[in-house]
Amino acid sequence: MTRTHEPTSTAPPPSSRTIHRRVLLGAAITALGGLLFGYDTGVISGALLFIGRDFHGLTSFDKELLTSILLIGALIGALAAGRIADRIGRRPTVLGTAALFVAGVLIAAVSPNFAVLVGARVIIGLAVGSASMVVPLYIGEIVPPRIRGALVSFNQLAITSGILASYLVDYGLASRQNWRLMFGLAAIPAILMFTGMLFQHESPHWLVAQGREDEAREVLRRVRDQGEIDAEIAQVRELSTRRSSMREVFNPALRHVMIIGVMLAVFQQITGINTIIYYAPTLLSSAGLGNSAALLANVVNGAVNVLMTIVAIRLLDRTGRRPLLLGGTAGMAVGMIVVALTFAIGGSHLHGNTAYIAIAGLLLYTGSFAIGLGPVFWLLISEIYPVRIRGQAMSVATMANWGANFVVTISFLTLLSAIGNAGTFFLFAGLSIVALAYFQRQVPETKNRSLQAIEHDLDLPVGAR
Ligand code: BGC
After folding, report:
1. Tens digits of per-residue pLDDT, 154-213?
2. For a designed S-S bond to 77, which of 126, 145, 153, 272 qualifies (C-beta 3.0 to 4.6 A apart)?
3. Helix, strand or coil for residue 423?
4. How far apart are the CA of 41 and the centre of ligand 1, in A?
5. pTM as predicted
6. Rounded to the nearest whole angstrom, what is the distance from the C-alpha of residue 272 to the centroid of ligand 1?
7. Are 209 and 226 contacting, i.e. CB atoms less than 8 angstroms apart?
């Protein structure tokens, strides 16, 4: 493997094949951050069942705290990572994130008491939040536009694979009741991420924004065709030498892009995905399914999530982002309506066919999320902001995503008891329809366009694009 700052002046220009391999490897290493994001958010559901064996007297509030404190950590991590990534660079930020992951999961695995475990979950949360921001940021900047959709969405594939892996690990380790190992296994991808990233390049866009064009050119020689380099540097330079400060994130001229990012973030969460990801087994078993059937349905749901993400990756750069986003969000609404109707008609206890119809509705919902709003949110926020504020602007959207996730996660069980299962899922269906109407009017197509061209267009008034 080649080191970042090794001199390359005598090396021949890379062939397209080499470009792809290098770029793919960089994307794959960084996407381990997504795997850890998925694993660490998913693992808690199973681990919760056994933690009480070692730490006696845990209340259900303690368990809620342990689950949701990670989301607060993630919110702070996303905020900090944007500033840090703009200041010291994307690469050191990814390295720091990987180091936090290693520290957090190892402390969780050996924690001698509950307080230490809560502290470890905060550290893991900081890493998850940072990864959720800096991974799509970095990948979006190192890959050529024609494959950016697919490669940025590697991250979503990694998140969903992490969730599925955690369900399988939880299931596999359940008989040994080994919650420490459930947490600790995440150290393996975290160490791989750290080591792999040591051999990766800094983002060429960030280098140009810092006035370090010679280094940017060195990096681009490895990951672009020779003919593309000058134009890309010139474009990034032009855009990054305009105004640049955190205040700009709130500059009226950028307000509409900021609002689009935050709306995508909030809609991704308030349409209910994590009520399914975190609570599906609880929901299904309390609706009358046996525990093992509920766990099996959960694994199937996790697998559909992964498979449909793969379909999305194949399609994003062909059909474009908008058709998948709009079609997927419509599918989510239909899925939620099916689930709500089964509860409305069958009551809170599902039997026979109604249980299967509810599960089919859940699978339709998750599959539709995975083909649209899941990957498209993370992709668009790596594409629509001007480079000079990209890190900070992505932080704002990512924080909004974690904040909305926290609110939904903490209130879901209360919502179920207040307005019932049917009412809750009708609410998510209604919110999916509102999201669809908003996306239809406001979200731009970014397929196959350079980040610079997208930025140029978004600078124009809506009518002039
Ligand atoms: C969301 C997560 C969610 C996951 C499910 C991601 O895009 O941001 O909150 O758990 O998708 O696949």
Report:
1. 889 999 999 999 988 887 887 788 999 999 999 999 999 999 999 999 999 999 989 899
2. 126
3. helix
4. 9
5. 0.84
6. 10
7. no
